């Protein structure tokens, strides 16, 4: 199997309301839109990433896909080069994070937003993990992965 794209599809009350939030605060652009569906792609000149939103209650969908997302455990992780700069950019749009910028011992600097559908958006920057958190062997593997991701 050769993958061409990978994106999450979230069932929501109003795809256009969610669309506007991602466009305004995170710089996504609309790749495709209908009155019941919106497919967004990340901005920038590098590799593009997508997310889609579909209106709830569509008769043509399988029954299990007709109700909007109402949970608390969906996290959309967005990796950035610099989490502090990303936070400044988000704040410039008038949005404050739900969870402030913080460094985690497992090797992540991040802050969290909550989109209008209730999805947690975790803006993350890999950083060096605290060796005491995982132990030296796992910390070395994580550090190697961070270095590999930066090319």
From TrEMBL:
GO terms for molecular function: dioxygenase activity. InterPro entries: Glyas_Bleomycin-R_OHBP_Dase, Glyas_Fos-R_dOase_dom, VOC_core. It comes from the Bacteria. Gene3D superfamilies: 3.30.720.110, 3.30.720.120. Residues 4-126 form the VOC domain. Keywords: Dioxygenase, Oxidoreductase. This is Glyoxalase/Bleomycin resistance protein/Dioxygenase superfamily protein.
């Amino acid at each position: 199997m050769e993958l061409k794209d990978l994106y999450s599809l979230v069932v929501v009350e109003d795809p256009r309301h969610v669309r506007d939030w991602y466009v305004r605060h995170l710089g996504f652009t609309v790749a495709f839109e209908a009155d019941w569906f919106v497919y967004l792609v990340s901005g920038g000149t590098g590799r593009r990433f997508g997310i889609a939103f579909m209106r709830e209650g569509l008769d043509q969908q399988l029954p299990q896909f007709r109700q909007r997302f109402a949970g608390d455990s969906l996290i959309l992780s967005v990796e950035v080069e610099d989490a502090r700069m990303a936070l400044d950019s988000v704040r410039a749009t008038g949005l404050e994070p739900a969870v402030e910028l913080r460094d985690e011992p497992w090797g992540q600097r991040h802050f969290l937003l909550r989109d209008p559908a209730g999805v947690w958006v975790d803006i993350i920057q890999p950083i060096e993990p605290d060796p005491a958190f995982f132990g030296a062997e796992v910390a070395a593997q994580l550090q190697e992965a961070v270095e590999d991701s930066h090319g």
